Amino acid sequence: MYRILLVDDEILVRDAIRENIDWKAMDCELVGDCDNGKAAAEFVQNHPVDIVLTDILMPYMDGMELSRFLHDNYPDIVIVIFSGFGEFEYAKKAIQYGVSEYMLKPVTAMELRNVIGKMKEKVDQQRKEKEKLERLTQTSENYQKNAIVIRSRALQGFVDNIKTRQESLEELAALGIDLEAACYRVAVFELDLYSDGSQLTAEKRQESALMSFVLFNISDEIISKEKAGVAYQDGDNKVGALFMGNRTREFEQMELEFFCEPGTDLEWFQYWRSYCKNFLLSLGIKEENLRLRDHDAEELCFYSKATTDFEYLFPFGWGELWGIADRTDYDLTQHQNHSGKSLEYFDPDDNTKYIPYVIEPSLGVERLFLSIVTEAYDEELIDAEKNDVRTVMHIHPALAPVKACILPLVKKLKEPAGELYAQLAKKFVVEYDEAGAIGKRYRRQDEIGTPFCITYDFDTLEDGCVTVRDRDTMQQERVAIADLEKYLEEKLAF
Predict the structure, then answer these.
(1) Cα angle vertex 235, ends 230, 237, to 5°?
(2) Mean predicted confidence (pLDDT) in 25-30
(3) Is the pTM value of this prediction over 0.85?
(4) Res. 304: pLDDT tops 70
(5) How far is the C-alpha of 367 from the C-alpha of 364, rounded, in Å?
(6) Above 60 in pLDDT, residue 88?
(7) How confident is the model at residue 178 (pLDDT cuts 50, 70, 90)?
(8) Cα 186 from Cα 243, distance rounded (Å)
(9) Which residue in 184, 233, 178, 187 sits closest to 208, CA to CA?
(10) How far apart are CA 425 and CA 432, in angstroms?
(11) Which domains does the chain have, with CATH numbers?
């Protein structure tokens, strides 16, 4: 049985299709019909669907947006578009969004039956490929599980102290694993099987087991390559990583070191402390969400003269974002002592030698990214009576992934608007959007943080100017096309 969903805003069209097709004879079931793409998107989230038949122009969410949603979230669903619009742009987008068939209205019952027959064959092929993949997955899991189960149990036993340290090390050595080290660190990655609130099915368990196996392989490859330790499987949905030594590599850490003359280190420490704070503020971090905590003398490391933690108010509470430390000459002195090579700097101005002091303004990339995204996200109440809320990402223009979007006011202007898009795309990351009302297109760009929307209207044909809308203020101004590149360069500067 093949489950079909019909989507069209015209009830007469839906009725005609429903009544003129013998669904049972085609081994099909019309599981539902919707009058817009939004309703269809909600329907497929709660009901199994094999084939979607959809129109393009519909309120709330059109057929192209629905196709994109299905392509991104439900790739197994076969999509058929029937529409009165045969423009190349629609066909191109249809291909991009994985649409299997594009039919022009009016569609006869025979044409529709033929297309449904083709789509059934595609569904069958997808089902066969899925079954094949499941069989291969099961075979791979069985093979690999036998190969790593003894190793994983030995490593887990070592971590859990089931045996003495020496007994565990000897057992691991017999398996070809040398873990002799002064100390160890353990990290455990657990796959979240319940975050989406769905029922834990046998299929989901199988999927999680495969993901766990993939995670184990990736972790083991990286850790082994870095000679930092080993990875092991801890049950069906956990992967453990055992690191040797007193420090693990910080893969996302930006290690910065500034060298200065002894006696000037505290002055330079204050410089970097102020510089880093202003840098964060310039990226849009609000000062009320940022606090600087200086370490007390009792908290300082023995080699440090000053340390400041930058803390940010994340959604889960205050957390460390950045750390700045005056590490004196400890680092270079230790390198010098262990390498046997002098790391003294000769100052030609006063003919003196000294080991430089180090100011370390290091930070984590992921933490900084999270703080910027958290700070940027906003839901603005535009009209309380209409419950109109604008979702917007106030990302600094220099950081915004898309700098501008070109919008023809109507589709009749798509050719000159497309030329403007091609011109700007040579220098900037820009998008082009002609689907839906202009206000709706503005909101789409607000959601992804595009700083500027550039509207090509009928007045543009006369005065050579376009309307530029600012994302944050929603204010609009006319800018000459000849000045547009310079305008964007100035607005995007950091």
Answers:
(1) 95
(2) 91
(3) no
(4) yes
(5) 5
(6) no
(7) confident
(8) 6
(9) 233
(10) 10
(11) 2-107 (3.40.50.2300), 147-243 (no CATH), 253-373 (3.30.930.10), 395-492 (3.40.50.800)
